[in-house]
């Protein structure tokens, strides 16, 4: 069999011929960027292969969990995660091998860049939450191929507020100072989420309801890589849309931070990029593996839009809930067209009124504060506190990162 035909094309993906439809516009963009964007047939097949590829290391560990005495083996994994494999007498080889891998930092890792990225993400304050929630997450629901696994985990029944709280808690853990050190919350949360992904992948793939011919593998490499890119290259692009222009060094630091986080999460190195431009190109190319918006886009988008109405505020709760609801809609409208708003089950006649106030504030205030050393430090502390205050509005829902309930495909009886 020809190497380019090694994997079938799931119905969710566009054909290779479809990727050539925008050739004139892409050719012009390639000249401007001085970087190839249009995929070759081989690059296209690599993307298709990625739709069938999981996380080799964690998938093997999950298979081991289910070979015998799953509950006890899951407890050993948790002990290794929180206390290290040295705490386990006669630790199983597969646990030792997995944790030896994730505990051995890649040669390319630069701690200084990690610290710079954290400082920058603190300094932007709630702008980070706006971009990640109202552009990356909301816009991501337009990708029906990505939605299928989410819906089958019971996301619609669980509630958007809980899902957003769990994702926000993970992001806060990871972006805490030294949050990715071995026994810090961000490192442990990431490995925990990686396990959840593998459990979901294993269980959904075995369900008769999962149509592999149409969707490929649940939580595949391409979906994981695209999600990782949403936290870095799309994040940086969205910040620019809100009036915050990162320096080249800040951009590189953020991309480096998420490259390492993607590596910890089990993203194949071939889908990890070093610079923002490469991230945009890969994200653009990955869109050809995604199905058009469908009912899941409307269901998930509408649920996320309603999420602020469940927030917990200390005072003027009803007023603040409705203000937050309309504020987030207006931010989404800045980034998304009226048609895309409608495809997400959102009102399309929305004006970006909140960004109209926010952008000038960022263009002037943020830039001035960043240039003055004393104010820059204050800006970082103030921005992080705003992020912490935002987490408080989730109440107890924001205390933990994804704790599967009994009907969740990642549930293992404790």
TrEMBL record:
InterPro entries: Lcp-like, MPAB/Lcp_cat_dom. It comes from the Bacteria. Residues 133-348 form the ER-bound oxygenase mpaB/mpaB'/Rubber oxygenase catalytic domain. It holds the Pfam family MPAB_Lcp_cat. One of its GO terms (molecular function) is oxidoreductase activity. This is DUF2236 domain-containing protein. It comes from Alkanindiges illinoisensis.
């Amino acid at each position: 069999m020809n190497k380019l035909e090694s994997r079938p094309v799931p119905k969710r993906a566009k054909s290779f011929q479809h990727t050539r439809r925008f050739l004139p516009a892409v050719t012009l963009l390639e000249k401007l960027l001085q970087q190839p964007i249009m995929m070759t047939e081989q690059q296209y097949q690599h993307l298709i292969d990625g739709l069938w590829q999981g996380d080799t290391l964690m998938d093997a560990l999950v298979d081991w969990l289910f070979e015998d005495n799953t509950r006890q083996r899951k407890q050993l994994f948790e002990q290794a995660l929180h206390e290290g494999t040295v705490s386990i007498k006669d630790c199983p080889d597969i646990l030792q091998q997995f944790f030896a891998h994730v505990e051995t930092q890649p040669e390319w890792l630069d701690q200084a860049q990690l610290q710079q990225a954290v400082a920058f993400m603190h300094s932007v304050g709630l702008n980070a939450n706006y971009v990640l929630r109202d552009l990356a997450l909301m816009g991501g629901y337009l990708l029906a191929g990505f939605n299928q696994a989410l819906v089958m985990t019971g996301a619609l029944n669980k509630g958007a507020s809980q899902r957003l709280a769990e994702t926000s808690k993970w992001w806060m853990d990871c972006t805490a100072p030294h949050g990715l050190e071995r026994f810090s919350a961000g490192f442990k949360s990431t490995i925990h989420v990686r396990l959840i992904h593998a459990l979901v992948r294993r269980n959904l793939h075995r369900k008769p309801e999962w149509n592999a011919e149409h969707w490929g593998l649940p939580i595949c490499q391409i979906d994981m890589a695209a999600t990782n890119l949403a936290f870095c290259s799309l994040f940086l692009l969205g910040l620019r849309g809100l009036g915050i222009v990162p320096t080249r060094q800040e951009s590189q630091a953020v991309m480096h931070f998420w490259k390492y986080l993607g590596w910890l999460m089990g993203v194949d190195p071939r889908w990890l990029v070093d610079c923002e431009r490469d991230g945009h190109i890969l994200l653009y190319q990955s869109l050809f593996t995604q199905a058009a918006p469908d009912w899941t886009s409307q269901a998930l988008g509408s649920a996320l839009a309603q999420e602020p109405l469940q927030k917990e505020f200390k005072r003027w709760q009803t007023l603040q809930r409705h203000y937050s609801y309309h504020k987030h809609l207006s931010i989404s409208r800045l980034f998304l067209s009226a048609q895309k708003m409608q495809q997400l089950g959102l009102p399309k006649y929305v004006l970006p009124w909140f960004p109209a106030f926010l952008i000038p504030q960022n263009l002037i205030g943020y830039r001035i504060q960043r240039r003055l050393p004393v104010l820059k430090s204050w800006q970082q502390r103030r921005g992080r506190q705003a992020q912490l205050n935002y987490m408080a509005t989730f109440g107890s829902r924001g205390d933990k990162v994804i704790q599967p309930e009994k009907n969740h495909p990642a549930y293992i009886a404790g």
